[in-house]
Amino acid sequence: MTRQSNDPNGKLVMSRRGMLLSGATLLAGTLAASLCPTISLAAVDTGAQSRFMQLSSLLINHQLNPDVGARIAETATGEYKNFAGMLDAIIAIAEQKQAKTVEDFFGDIPEGELRDFAHWVIFAWYSGCSSEKRNAKVFTYEEALTFKTTSDILTIPSYGISGPNLWTRPNLPLSAPMPTF
Amino acid sequence: MVTKTSADVVIVGTGVVGVVIAEQMLDAGHSVLMIEAGPRVSRAEVVENWRNSPLGVKGDTSVAYPSRPWAPHPMGGEKPEDAYLQFSGPDAYDQTFIRYAGGSTWHWAGTSWRLTPEDMRINSLYGVGRDWAFDYETLEPYYVRTEHKLGICGPADRTQQWPQTGTRSAPYPMPALPFSPGEVKFTEVVKTLGYNNIPVAQARNSGMPYDGRPACCGNNNCVPVCPVAAKYDAETALHRLEKKGATLLVDSVVYKVETSAQNKIEAVHFYDQHKQSHRISGKLFVLACNGLENPKLLLMSTDDRNPNGIANSSDQVGRNMMDHPARSFTVTTKEPFWSGIGPVVNSGIMETSQGSFRSEHAGAYFRYNNFARNRFVTFAALKKGLVGKALDEEIRRMTACTADIVAAHEILADPNNRLTLSDKKDWLGLPKPSIHYDVGDYVRKCWEVYSQPIGKQIAEAMGATDIKISPKFNNSKHIMGGTIMGKDASNSVVDVDCRAHDHENLFIPGGGAMAAGACGNSTITMVALALKAGDAMVDQMRGA
């Protein structure tokens, strides 16, 4: 895990490469821990969360915050009975395709429960919420990926990226490069 | 002297109207006690409430201001039968306001258009609606005082100011805020159609601190809360008032106005959050607790001398409820506009609110909403099933290339648009407000023959590839009418100083007094009326 220089909040952000590499290690650790009768439920949950981060990094081609991921995973555990099985299944598809980006394997995820779950994970990271509804669980506001796609020009409302009267600038064309995040 | 039970001036409500009057009276040496139904909270708490709300409901301002059981206010997502506001009639008077210390300027946009001289003579000039009881030139000095009191920025160039008619006796205390790239582009587009998109006068600090508050840094969150208080809200004045000696009671719901044998106001009664009743006496009383709560309180306060409620011998209390019925055009464009840079409302086309057509139908004001579009487009982009680079690009495109244009209409005072007391009760057992509302043919005809065609014309000039029009009139949350002003006590509630015709020591300033509301946001006029009422109160206390 490395501290990223472009993390505005100074929080730990796991790089995509680091996440993919560490996923296997964490999975092995989790499996070993599950054989130990004294292991706590929290440790098992940590393993599932790590597995969830591995899946997330396969579904999303960006750096992801594990703290946010832990919150999403906690909700997913409650809302998807086959949470662990779906994690394994989608990761297995990606590994079989030796996927480096989501585009490499997403089309291979079968329609139905697995595809819906994959979309929900993407939804959660981009919107920062569990659903569109009023009673949605909120995983993050300022780290919702929707704001990252426009961070070169728009503030996240209530935060500031400008100074007094300093927002006059040329209009940015759509051809401008996507921010790196 | 002021105590917890008595003061020279008792003010019900701690919003902008109550606050400016309180300061006037304190500066004149009078004791002031203010009573607020709801809680007092920190700005940080409000900001966190909003940030922690789901993306799908961030457009609902009430998520930042949860109401307290004893002081309900409209909350989004309520079932109609459970909602605080009860409706009847063809249109819902679905307002947003909050019962918190500091009042609803917590979540206003800060937009501060003056009325025009013509707006105030709509009956004389166009034969519709009601004239104001005085003219624009009478109100103009109070507009100037309001602009300096609240810190309203605006252009120095007379051709860019509103209104173009009538006097402007002093410049704005701060220059206009700069336009964002999208606003520059929108201004250029509408210019090709012959319309002038001018800088909005707004209660936001422009390029400099003002009144102890910092300069706007474009946080793009004026609604529902400015995180740094660069936008004026009345909460920012409460500490200053307390330093000047004001007493502030919170979580105290006034439910009754008491009269003396001479039919003067003797006291107000409030429930605390434990449902215990208390009595506050005073010399002068001000009801400044919102355009809906004021008439509700008056109607609840019946006695033998006032069987229809306080200040209601004319039967006009609760009537003439007005707003600025609005329709929006959500436009998808080929080229990016990038809404969301700078404050949320920064410009407008006001000239379309004026003209001889007003004898036939309403005028309308058009504005380019400058809210960042992420929260409006993210779910739609996700529903397309895209992933990876395609998803990123679609969110970015939709954020850049969609925009909301809003047409806000002028409604006429109509006594049938009326607030009454519902038979449904709130947590304290007090009646909920019930409002019958119809935007009326004057507005509907405008939409059909004037504002909708103009809106479509603008959208097409913007390069629209898609236009979605809101299916019904929405409320602008500009509560007006209800305690309407007039010279004739038989058909109005308050006089030219917002003093109740029926009670010489009761003042009901604010939007409720407005006889005509035109198209521009009402707060600046509410405050101008408050300052005028404050002058009258100082004179009255002096025995003048």
What is shown here, in short?
Chain B: This is Choline dehydrogenase. The complex is a heterodimer of chains A (181) and B (544). Chain A has 181 residues and is mainly α.
What this model shows, in words?
The complex is a heterodimer of chains A (181) and B (544). Chain A has helices at 16-34, 41-59, 66-79, 83-96, 113-127, 145-148. Chain A is an all-alpha fold. In chain A, helix 1 packs antiparallel against helix 2 (41-59) and helix 2 packs across helix 4 (83-96). By secondary structure, chain B is α/β, with parallel strands linked by helices. Chain B has one domain: FAD/NAD(P)-binding domain, CATH 3.50.50.60. Chain B is built from eleven helices and 16 strands. In chain B, the strands form four sheets. In chain B, strands 1, 2, 5, 6, 7, 8 and 16 form a seven-stranded mixed β-sheet that branches. Chain B has a four-stranded antiparallel β-sheet with strand order 11-12-9-15. In chain B, strands 3-14-13 form a three-stranded mixed β-sheet, covered by helices on one side. Chain B is globular. The model of chain B has no long low-confidence stretch (mean pLDDT 97). Classes of the chains: A mainly alpha (181), B alpha/beta (544). At the A-B interface, helix 5 of A face helix 2, helix 5, helix 8 and helix 9 of B.
- Contiguous uncertain segments of 5+ residues of chain B: none
Please, what is the CATH homologous superfamily of chain B?
FAD/NAD(P)-binding domain
Taking all Cα atoms into account, the compactness measure Rg of chain A is 18 Å
**Range of strand content of chain A:** under 5%
Query: Which CATH class of chain B applies here?
Result: Alpha Beta
How many structural domains does the protein architecture of chain B include? 1
Q: Write down the overall geometry of chain B.
A: globular
Helix and strand element order of chain B: EHEHEHHHEHEEEEHEEEHHEEEHEEH
Rg estimate of chain B, integer Å: 23 Å
The CATH architecture assignment of chain B turns out to be 3-Layer(bba) Sandwich
